[in-house]
Amino acid sequence: MARPRSFDEQQVLNAVRDQFWDAGYAATSLEDLMRVSGLGKGSLYAAFGDKRQLFLRALRAYTDDNHCRLREALAEAPRALDALRMLLEAPVDDSGGMRRGCLLANSTSELGNADPEVLDHAHRAYETSTKLIGDCVARAQREGDLPAEADPIELARALLAAQQGLVFMSRTGLDTATLTATARSLASRLLPDHSGA
């Protein structure tokens, strides 16, 4: 009879995710994964498969968590327009955490040309993000804060592209004041207040 696992699977996935996030896929060795997980090779592979399978599982968990947090953040704001502006300001408000960038974007840049599964995952993930943001745009239109004639999905794609651009700029070491000014400039152009307030 197989022994029950004596480790926290989520804790291991989080540690492995952070290793891939900090170092990238290619630069992460099996020894790195064993070190951060606290597991031996046999236990690691028995539970999660090989390095690539472990990476894909960590990437999916990261994406699922991001979508959950995005959904909650967009829904919790009293007005949708505030939630959309917050989306652009998030990379600035992250207090240096965004210097790591986005694991999904980093991984797509590193592996997208060589690994169709990573590219497909990224495509589906960004489509899900676009849909969530698009729903929030539609809510802002119903609330009278954005023009009714705007296409919610087109605006959502523009907002996501702007937000990812800010994340990338934050990785370059751009100072907070410049990032903040850039985020506000993008918000004023993409999200003009049409409420008449």
How is this structure best described in words?
With 197 residues, this protein is an all-alpha fold. 72% of the residues lie in helices and 0% in strands. The chain is built from 9 helices and no strands. It has helices spanning 9-23, 30-37, 41-48, 51-76, 80-93, 103-111, 116-142, 152-171, 176-190. Helix 4 packs parallel to helix 7 (116-142) and helix 5 runs parallel beside helix 8. The chain starts with 8 loop residues before the first helix and ends in a 7-residue tail after the last helix.
Q: How does the SSE layout of this entry go?
A:
Elements: H1 9-23, H2 30-37, H3 41-48, H4 51-76, H5 80-93, H6 103-111, H7 116-142, H8 152-171, H9 176-190
Low-confidence stretches: none
Derived structural class: mainly alpha
- Approximately what portion of the residues adopt beta-strand conformation? under 5%
Please estimate the helix content: over 70%
The biggest sheet amounts to: none
> How many distinct beta strands?
0
Instruction: Count every helix, treating DSSP H or I runs of 4 or more residues as helices.
Output: 9
The first-to-last residue Cα distance is: 69 Å
Q: What is the global morphology?
A: elongated
Using only C-alpha atoms, the radius of gyration works out to 19 Å
Quick check: average pLDDT?
90
Write down the secondary-structure element order.
Answer: HHHHHHHHH
